[in-house]
């Protein structure tokens, strides 16, 4: 706990900088949002102003509302804006599933005839059939600014505070798409740029910077605290047998040691008491067990304990040599006691053995002695059986078959299958019980317990046996779930996985502490939430009743669930809207605090723990022999150690090799080799003579081959091919299913496909002719990238042949080939070096990532099978208008309603895994949880919150898998990234050292140089002093802060007086910045002024401000016609003033430098992202381009904005999926089931094949985008933050070194007489009669202030040791009174 709390305190300074950066982003984006979209989300479609309604009729609503509650309104675009939606897009009114076809004139005519104007409202069947109702929606034609904002007024850009709430919601990636669509509807389609920029800067960079800062600090803090604890342990070292300077093992090992110690003590005392009571003197070593003479004390190594197949040779019964000598060995005091004794200490003394010799001979002749010999022989044989490879493989196969038998259980399974599965369970339980008995017999009780894996196995066996016994009595069905833990037993047979689990186990102490912190945090916020929002969240049902919302704070249980839900970021925005509507807008502070501290600090702490665990286990990929050597528990001082050690190692390595090395691979290689040898006998002679010929046709001297080689070697060749690939990408992007056959577009795309295929075939031919196809080192197929190219060319050729041979007949094949054609952009990778490096890094990460995926799979299968047992057949519900009185399936069908199941259910293992993946991605998990809580039974109608205990299932899955196991992805990717960069470390260190030397020399020269302002006149020197004064920067910073606040005061419908005040403020600020720029120009001169980037920024801000004021004045005086958009843009560009703050905020600048340094590598990642998006977008258009969303086919995720109709919209939709916002809704829409009478010619609303393709498409995309690529960004940022920290430290050390040299006089200023300088005219140093000494002090303080201005804050954080160098001004002994150069 102390480590974690100290860590949080240590990270506060750096997290403060991240927070400042967040404020910076919030201010910039908030002011832009208010300037552009204030009041726009109030736009609604109203009837025309002169619209009159006949008497007896009323409009359904004053403006058009798609729904009754106006939660998701229809926002239109004003005539002055270019939004997507206008009032002409308002859909026709529908009643009873029919479009209304009457207008108000028809209604008047019906009234004049004495008929009802709207028959449908009276429930007439004829009216419903004909759609006889008035289409009032056609009269909502005027777009006008109304009074309400979306989502109970919570979402708008009317002022800076509401804009911040929106920005925070966008950065959390929950519900951001909806806000973007509102703004696009009201203002312009291109507003998506604002939101995507905000997500990339805010979510992908800033939030990951939080994680990077915490993770970087964690290892330092842990190391420091660890050292402190070691010192304390050294001080408190006692004479106890348990206390030692050795590093403690894991928790289980320490407990085991303690129990052994207590038992040993108890045994000795009881033996002593026994002898005392009998009145006999106790032997010299009462209760001490003999020890194997072939090794020393056990070395308790946690790494060894993690190994399942451990050969811990410790007691005479367990040492193979001792067992062989068992028949000749001296007997012990008590065989049974010796077997169960835990820690064997010293041999019995020789005199004691000799004294008992005769008695033991007598015992040997008895039946008991012979039985003991038989028992030992049997145990020796059992040891061999249990440790053999066949035994291990048999158990592994049994576990696999058992897992499969548990996995095939499903809803509506036949009775025979149920009986077979029960028999299987009894068989497997018997097998595992037998395994446990055999191991207990072979190892002995305590030796069995020494391995934690055995305890795990034993508990599962005991529970399984209890379950079978209990089942016979009809109870204990809950124990069925514990069978599932057998899946985890598989891990012990896979060394790579076991190593990942060791990392998990080693972080468990920190994770347990983290869980306590998390529980405390959730409890505090739950109690606070109950006080603020208790009994305030209500919801109106369709029947008009008011019921509490399911996300509420009415009781402690639901408050905890709601807080946990907010921490998972799922639908937290809905809770925010309810909270703001039911209390006040200030309620947003509660949610922002909860999200910030919970999500961005606490959960990042968990990731930091795992990342540190993986980095500490960085040598985990060392050879297994090292592991084995450490786990053979022999004492180095023992004489006979070497031979036994080697034999044990051979034995263990044999077990390892036989068990884990893929013998199939070796077999395959030897088989291939044999076939190759056999075929060599039949090989023609010309094959040998033409080995270096290309495809046995073109010799190395062949003119055509040489020409091909010269073409490929030309520097333009790759660029030309790249140009063709990019052109082909454009044509692939233009493809979509709705292009009519025979149209000009279809003809163009077909011909272009033929042309590109011909070009790529030509390129492949050139390469094959010049390099050879397969024979030779440089052959075409020897490179995996060429194999990819060749495969894509081959696919394109087959595609052309199939389409020419009559594609209509084999449409399925053609569709598959079309889909494969979308992979062509992958060819870009091999031709872009940076991109290739990133891809190769990711490919090398695949093995460790694969291990994590396997661990995930184990947990998924366990929770999946458990979910099937808990919920199979229970996720059905009745779909109809009134289901209040329906209790089961038969009631539902009697009323002619539909009995349907939820898309995500647990009816079989496949469906369960799909539902669990949605849960793990934390998008849409709340609804699945509600369905689970409401489930009653098979064919029973759900009841709200029927079984709240099911919360345990869902929340434990989220904690274990989503937060813990999936975050291991970050650890693996970061560790692997560092490993991949290790070979570059030497070069980088060399380069850094050279750079440091150059900078050191530069600083030395600068310190010796004559200052540039030495020749200035008095007035200019005064201006220079003013401009370089630290206080001027502080004043300017203060003015900018005031300016930012005044810009933030702008809001919707602001009074005219505020307009005037802000206008005059702008004049004042602009004039201040103009004056500052003029003074600096005078002080530094043009060349030196423009050399500094900050001065360039200042001048740009001044010019923009002056231009903005000029345009505003021209518009007011109406001298020239000026577009209002230009004025608005100029007002938005004033935001650039905020950037001046960066000059002072050095900590923020350090973080920004980290981000900027990381940009080249992140750019390569961005390219890879683009490539991934491109391929999936093209695939999405092919697969889902014809899916429609309308009243007949309602959609949950797809909408008029989120579609796959064309490439651009597909790209934007995939960006939404990659952020995890409602991706499960989009996938649900693609999984649409076809009705039995579906005719594809009528309306393409579904596709049966998508049931299988769609989950693969979305799951692979989400896994790649969310879990792998984003984590590489974290790895890159961590690396560069580390580098920038090192650089800052080096900079500080260099400055300190120069200060020290100046102070000691080894480095002299130019111009000092003793240094051989020319001397400086004293008149230059005295500006006035009283300014001499003051001027000197000013210049020295100026030097100190300005040299450390850029790094001071960061240096204080990183390198406090050099602070004393800054605290006193440097004095050159022989140069008193000399002003030094101020570096700019």
From TrEMBL:
One record GO biological process? membrane depolarization during action potential
Its chief place of residence is membrane
For bias kind Basic residues, which ranges apply? 997-1006
Pull one GO CC term from this UniProt entry.
Answer: voltage-gated calcium channel complex
Q: Which domain of life is it from?
A: Eukaryota
Tell me one GO molecular function of this protein: low voltage-gated calcium channel activity
**Known Pfam families for this protein?**
Ion_trans
Membrane topology qualifier: Multi-pass membrane protein
Q: Where is the Ion transport domain?
A: 1-225, 389-617, 714-984, 1030-1288
Which positions does UniProt annotate for Ca(2+) binding?
174, 570, 923
Q: Where in the cell is it found?
A: Membrane
Alphabetically list the UniProt keywords: Calcium, Calcium channel, Calcium transport, Glycoprotein, Ion channel, Ion transport, Membrane, Metal-binding, Repeat, Transmembrane, Transmembrane helix, Transport, Voltage-gated channel
Reaction(s) the record says it catalyses: Ca(2+)(in) = Ca(2+)(out)
**Which InterPro entries does its entry note?**
Ion_trans_dom (IPR005821), VDCCAlpha1 (IPR002077), VGCC_Ca_Na (IPR043203), Volt_channel_dom_sf (IPR027359)
User: Which residue windows are transmembrane per the record?
Assistant: 12-34, 161-183, 189-214, 390-408, 420-446, 511-533, 588-611, 747-770, 790-817, 852-871, 951-974, 1030-1047, 1067-1086, 1150-1177, 1257-1278
* Basic and acidic residues bias spans: 341-359, 986-996
Region (Disordered) residue ranges read 283-305, 326-359, 986-1006
* Stated family: Belongs to the calcium channel alpha-1 subunit (TC 1.A.1.11) family.
Name of the protein described by the UniProt record: Calcium voltage-gated channel subunit alpha1 Ia
């Amino acid at each position: 706990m102390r480590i974690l709390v100290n860590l949080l305190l240590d990270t506060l300074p750096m997290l403060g900088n991240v927070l400042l950066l967040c404020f910076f982003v919030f201010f910039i984006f908030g002011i832009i949002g208010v300037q552009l979209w204030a009041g726009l989300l109030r736009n609604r479609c109203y009837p025309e102003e002169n619209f009159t309604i006949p008497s007896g009729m009323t409009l359904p609503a004053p403006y058009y509302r798609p729904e009754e509650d106006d939660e998701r309104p229809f926002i239109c675009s004003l005539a002055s804006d270019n939004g997507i939606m206008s009032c002409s897009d308002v859909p026709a009114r529908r009643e009873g599933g029919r479009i209304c076809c009457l207008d108000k004139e028809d209604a008047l005519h019906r009234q004049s005839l004495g008929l009802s104007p709207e028959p449908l409202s009276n429930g007439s069947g004829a009216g419903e059939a004909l759609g006889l109702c008035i289409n009032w929606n056609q009269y909502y034609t005027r777009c006008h600014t109304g009074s309400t904002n979306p989502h109970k007024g919570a979402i708008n850009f009317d002022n800076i505070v509401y804009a911040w709430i929106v920005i925070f919601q966008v950065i959390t990636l929950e519900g951001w798409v909806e806000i973007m669509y509102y703004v696009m509807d009201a203002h312009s389609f291109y507003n998506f740029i604002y939101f995507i920029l905000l997500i990339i800067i805010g979510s992908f960079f800033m939030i990951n910077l939080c994680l990077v800062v915490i993770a970087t600090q964690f290892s330092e803090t842990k190391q420091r605290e660890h050292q402190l604890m070691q010192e304390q342990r050294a001080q408190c070292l006692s004479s106890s047998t348990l206390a030692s300077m050795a590093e403690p093992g894991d928790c289980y090992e320490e407990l085991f040691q303690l129990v052994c110690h207590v038992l040993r003590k108890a045994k000795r005392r009881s033996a002593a008491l026994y002898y005392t009571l009998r009145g006999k003197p106790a032997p010299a070593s009462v209760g001490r067990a003999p020890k194997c003479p072939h090794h020393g004390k056990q070395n308790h190594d946690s790494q060894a304990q993690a190994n399942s197949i451990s050969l811990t040779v410790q007691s005479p019964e367990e040492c193979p040599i001792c067992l062989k000598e068992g028949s000749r060995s001296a007997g012990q005091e008590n065989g049974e006691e010796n077997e169960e004794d835990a820690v064997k200490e010293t041999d019995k003394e020789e005199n004691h053995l000799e004294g008992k010799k005769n008695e033991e001979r007598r015992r040997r002749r008895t039946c008991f002695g012979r039985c003991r010999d038989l028992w030992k022989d049997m145990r020796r044989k059992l040891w061999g059986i249990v440790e053999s490879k066949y035994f291990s493989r048999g158990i592994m196969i049994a576990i696999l078959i058992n897992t499969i038998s548990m996995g095939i259980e499903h809803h509506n399974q036949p009775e025979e299958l149920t009986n077979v599965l029960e028999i299987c369970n009894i068989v497997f339980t018997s097998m595992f019980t037998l395994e446990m008995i055999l191991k207990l017999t072979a190892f002995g009780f305590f030796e069995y317990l020494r391995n934690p894996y055995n305890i795990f196995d034993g508990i599962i066996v005991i529970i399984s046996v209890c379950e079978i016994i209990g089942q016979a009595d009809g109870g204990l069905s809950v124990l069925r779930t514990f069978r599932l833990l057998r899946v985890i037993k598989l891990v012990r047979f896979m060394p790579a996985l076991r190593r990942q689990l060791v990392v998990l186990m080693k972080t468990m102490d920190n994770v347990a502490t983290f869980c306590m912190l998390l529980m405390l945090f959730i409890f505090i916020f739950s109690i606070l939430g109950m006080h603020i929002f208790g009994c305030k969240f209500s919801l109106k049902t369709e029947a008009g009743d008011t019921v509490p919302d399911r996300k509420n704070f009415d009781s402690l249980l639901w408050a905890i669930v709601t807080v946990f839900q907010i921490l998972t970021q799922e639908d937290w925005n809905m809770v925010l809207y309810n909270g703001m509507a039911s209390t006040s807008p200030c309620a947003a502070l509660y949610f922002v605090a909860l999200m910030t501290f919970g999500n961005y600090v606490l959960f990042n702490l968990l990731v930091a723990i795992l990342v540190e665990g993986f980095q500490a286990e960085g040598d985990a990929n060392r050879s297994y022999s090292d592991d084995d050597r450490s786990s053979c528990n022999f004492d180095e001082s023992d004489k006979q150690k070497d031979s036994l050690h080697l034999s044990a190692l051979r034995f263990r390595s044999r077990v390892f090799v036989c068990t884990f090395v893929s013998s199939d691979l070796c077999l395959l290689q030897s088989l291939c080799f044999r076939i190759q040898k056999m075929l060599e006998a039949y090989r023609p002679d010309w094959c040998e003579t033409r080995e270096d010929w290309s495809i046995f046709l073109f010799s190395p001297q062949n003119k055509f081959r040489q020409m091909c080689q010269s073409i490929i070697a030309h520097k333009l060749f790759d660029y030309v091919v790249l140009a063709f690939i990019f052109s082909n990408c454009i044509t692939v992007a233009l493809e979509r299913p709705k292009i009519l056959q025979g149209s000009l577009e279809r003809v163009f795309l077909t011909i272009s496909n033929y042309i590109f295929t011909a070009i790529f075939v030509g390129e492949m031919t050139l390469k094959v002719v010049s390099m050879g196809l397969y024979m030779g080192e440089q052959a075409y197929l020897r490179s995996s990238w060429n194999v990819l190219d060749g495969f894509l060319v081959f696919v394109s050729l087959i595609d052309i042949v199939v389409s020419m041979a009559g594609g209509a007949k084999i449409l399925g094949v053609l569709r598959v080939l079309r889909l494969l054609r979308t992979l062509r952009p992958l060819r870009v990778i091999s031709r872009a070096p940076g991109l290739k490096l990133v891809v190769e890094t990711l490919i090398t990460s695949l093995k460790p990532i694969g291990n994590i995926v396997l661990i995930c799979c184990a947990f998924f299968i366990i929770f999946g099978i458990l979910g099937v047992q808990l919920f199979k057949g229970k996720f059905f519900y009745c779909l109809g208008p009134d289901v209040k009185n329906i209790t089961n399936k038969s009631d539902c069908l009697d009323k002619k309603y539909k009995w349907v199941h939820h898309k995500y259910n647990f009816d079989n293992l496949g469906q369960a895994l799909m539902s669990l993946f949605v849960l793990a991605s934390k998008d849409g998990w709340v609804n699945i949880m509600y369905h689970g809580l409401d489930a009653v039974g098979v064919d029973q109608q759900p009841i709200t919150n029927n079984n709240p205990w099911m919360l345990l299932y869902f929340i434990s899955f989220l904690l274990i898998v989503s937060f813990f196991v999936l975050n291991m992805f970050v650890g693996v990717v970061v560790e692997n990234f560092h490993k991949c960069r290790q070979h570059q470390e030497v070069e980088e260190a060399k380069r850094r050292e050279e750079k440091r030397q150059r900078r050191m020399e530069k600083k030395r020269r600068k310190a010796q140089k004559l200052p540039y302002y030495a020749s200035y006149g008095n007035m200019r020197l005064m201006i220079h002093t003013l401009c370089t004064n630290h206080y001027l920067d502080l004043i300017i910073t203060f003015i900018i802060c005031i300016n930012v606040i005044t810009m933030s005061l702008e809001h919707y419908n602001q009074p005219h007086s505020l307009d005037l005040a802000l206008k005059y403020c702008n004049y004042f600020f602009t004039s201040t910045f103009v004056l500052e720029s003029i003074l600096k120009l005078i002080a530094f001169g043009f060349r030196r002024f423009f050399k500094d980037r900050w001065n360039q920024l200042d001048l740009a801000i001044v010019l923009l401000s002056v231009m903005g004021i000029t345009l505003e004045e021209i518009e007011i005086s109406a001298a020239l016609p000026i577009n209002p958009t230009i004025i608005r843009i100029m007002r938005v560009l004033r935001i650039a003033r905020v950037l001046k703050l960066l000059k002072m905020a050095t900590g923020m600048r350090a973080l920004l430098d980290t981000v900027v340094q990381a940009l080249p590598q992140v750019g390569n990642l961005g390219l890879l992202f683009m490539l991934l998006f491109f391929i999936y977008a093209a695939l999405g258009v092919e697969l889902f381009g014809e899916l429609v969303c309308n009243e007949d086919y309602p959609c949950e995720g797809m909408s008029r904005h989120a579609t796959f109709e064309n490439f651009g919209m597909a790209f934007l939709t995939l960006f939404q999926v990659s952020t995890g916002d409602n991706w499960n809704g989009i996938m649900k829409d693609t999984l649409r089931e076809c009705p039995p009478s579906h005719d594809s010619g009528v309306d393409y609303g579904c596709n049966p094949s998508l049931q299988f393709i769609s989950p693969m498409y979305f799951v692979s995309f989400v896994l790649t985008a969310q879990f792998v690529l984003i984590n590489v960004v974290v790895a890159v940022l961590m690396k560069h933050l580390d580098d920038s920290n090192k650089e800052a430290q080096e900079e500080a050390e260099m400055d300190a070194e120069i200060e020290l040299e100046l102070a000691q006089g080894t480095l002299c200023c130019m111009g000092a007489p003793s240094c051989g300088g020319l001397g400086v005219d004293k008149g230059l140093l005295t500006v006035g009669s009283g300014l001499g000494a003051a001027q000197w002090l000013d210049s020295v303080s100026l030097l100190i202030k300005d040299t450390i201005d850029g790094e001071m804050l960061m240096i204080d954080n990183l390198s406090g040791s050099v602070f004393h160098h800054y605290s006193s001004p440097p004095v050159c002994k022989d140069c008193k009174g000399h002003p030094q150069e101020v570096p700019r």
